[in-house]
Write a structure and sequence with these properties.
The protein is an alpha/beta fold and about 120 residues long. It is about 40% helix and about 15% strand. The chain has one domain: Rossmann fold (3-Layer(aba) Sandwich). It is built from 4 helices and 4 strands; from the N terminus they run βαββαβαα. The chain has a 4-stranded parallel sheet with strand order 3-2-1-4, covered by helices on one side. The longest helix has 25 residues.
């Protein structure tokens, strides 16, 4: 079964994406669990599903997940939201929305190079 990673899978968009994909793919949901996360949005009866409570800034974790599951697709929906929160605490937005995405992309690049994968992991 094809494996797909969804980061931010407990958020509104991520959880709805998981519920759409759940019957066709094995889904790996990576979410650090924050104010925007909601476990109730995920169908509790999904059989082909694995949840990891983790931050996409954890390079070792991301490296190990890519190595373990060899996903065909990665949907990055992990992000800090609400512009008003960014005014009060911009550092967390920079860490997650910029550095987290950079870490994820860099981990994918290294994984592809190490495993001699010439195609994109996303579609």
């Amino acid at each position: 079964m094809e494996k797909i990673i969804v980061t931010g899978g407990l958020g509104f968009i991520g959880s709805n994406l998981i519920n759409i994909l759940k019957d066709k793919y094995f889904i790996i949901n990576i979410d650090k669990v924050s104010y925007a996360s909601n476990f109730k949005n995920i169908d509790p009866n999904i059989k082909n599903y694995k949840f990891y409570r983790q931050d996409i800034n954890n390079k070792i974790f991301i490296k190990n997940i890519l190595k373990k599951y060899k996903p065909s697709t990665i949907y990055n929906l992990a992000a800090e939201t609400h512009v008003d929160r960014s005014i009060d605490a911009p550092k967390i937005f920079i860490e997650n929305n910029i550095l987290g995405v950079f870490n994820l992309l860099e981990s994918i690049r290294v994984y592809k190079k190490k495993n001699k994968i010439n195609t994109y992991l996303n579609r």
